[in-house]
Design brief:
Layout: E1 11-16, H1 20-25, E2 33-37, H2 47-60, E3 67-71, H3 80-89, E4 94-97, H4 103-115, E5 123-128, H5 131-135, H6 137-143, E6 149-154, H7 156-163, H8 173-185, E7 189-192, H9 201-214, E8 218-221, H10 227-234, H11 238-252, E9 261-264, E10 267-270, H12 271-287
Parallel strand pairs: 1-2, 1-8, 2-3, 3-4, 4-5, 5-6, 6-7, 7-8
Antiparallel strand pairs: 9-10
This protein binds coenzyme A (COA) and magnesium ion (MG).
Magnesium ion (MG) is lined by residues 40, 98, 127, 129, 155, 157-158.
Length: 292
């Protein structure tokens, strides 16, 4: 399974699938991705109802072009098998599995998805939130899209808990970089963790800027008020687009025909920068038709 076209995942909004008001509201929210949560945001007594709500939402056809993802309960819970089955039958774009430990977990899940006759396009997303997974990042990522695995989603609330550490963002820098490197080595997407203080736009902006700088595709969100910030920060800026267009134009200039390195705006610019510039413009073009 390989994605042929860039798909924006700037804003990936979680909502407890037990919250029907949130599910309804999401139909008109400008999030690129909606994650119907069956796991930590849903109390044990509400698990079955949440699963039914998520399936109904998936089948409703009311979410437009948004990418629809179901976060199932972890593999060692009594809900996992039914969650995965129903999400696949309801044709979610992706199933997000929490508490992944290693490559064997991924193989077990994709084997199960084959047994369920899941649509070949149904992706597997993995939460990176357990210390064991951090130690096995390369091995997990290497399974890649051939095993349906397309996306890593960071989960720092759980990781901090498992590490018995304070939830202090500064200590996750190396983990973020390791995760991006493992993801990119095998062609995966990578989404940053949530920002819990949804009434603090400045703090959110700072985390989005940091994540974008480190190479992340987008951010996990928990509240509608966070969408606009993530959409803005993870989209190429007007300055970035102008700089990319200048590089494309310079390489297209007949005077530079056949050259591998030229000077654009006073800076050394190589063919790799041309490739990057084309990618950035393609990203901007994919985002342009979206509401924001
Ligand atoms: N998705 C969609 N709609 C949401 C939403 C979400 N994640 N969070 C809040 N809303 C809606 C509310 O239903 C409310 O809608 P209304 O105006 O139609 O009544 C509106 O946005 C304003 O919500 P607000 O009152 O500010 O928040 P709240 O107190 O109802 O909820 C949370 C706060 C944190 C409990 C809620 O945002 C939430 O459940 N977030 C997701 C948690 C989650 O999924 N966690 C798992 C991943 S870590
Ligand atoms: Mg978690």
């Amino acid at each position: 399974m390989t994605e042929t076209k860039y798909r924006p995942r700037r804003s990936c909004l979680y909502m407890p699938a037990s919250n029907t008001r949130a599910l309804e509201k999401a139909k008109s929210l400008p999030a690129d991705t909606i994650i119907f949560d069956l796991e930590d945001a849903v109390a044990p007594d509400a698990k079955e109802e949440a699963r039914a709500n998520a399936c109904a939402a998936l089948q409703s056809g009311d979410y437009g072009d948004r990418e629809l993802v179901v976060r199932v309960n972890a593999m060692d819970t009594p809900w996992f098998a039914q969650d995965l089955k129903q999400a696949c039958l309801s044709e979610a774009d992706a199933v997000l599995v929490p508490k992944i430990l290693n490559a064997d977990d991924i193989i077990q899940i994709t084997d199960f998805m084959e047994d369920l006759d899941a649509n070949l396009d149904t992706q597997l997303w993995a939460m990176i939130e357990m210390p064991q997974a951090i130690l096995k990042l390369a091995e997990i990522a290497a399974l890649g899209p051939q095993q349906r695995l397309t996306t890593f989603v960071m989960g720092f609330n759980d990781l901090a808990k498992e590490m018995r550490a304070d939830h202090d963002r500064t200590m996750f820098g190396s983990v973020m970089t390791q995760t991006v490197i493992a993801a990119r080595a095998y062609g995966l997407n990578v989404i940053d963790s949530v920002y819990n203080d949804f009434n603090d736009p400045d703090g959110l902006t700072a985390e989005c800027v940091e994540a974008k700088t480190r190479g992340f595709d987008g951010k996990s969100l928990i509240h509608p008020a966070q969408i606009e910030t993530a959409n803005r920060v993870f989209a190429p800026s007007a300055d970035e687009i102008a700089a990319a267009e200048a590089i494309i134009a310079a390489f297209a200039d007949p005077a530079n025909a056949g050259k591998g390195v030229i000077v654009v705006d006073g800076k050394m610019t190589e063919l790799l920068h041309l490739k990057q510039a084309k990618q950035l413009v393609a990203t901007a073009q994919a985002i342009e038709p979206l509401a924001q």
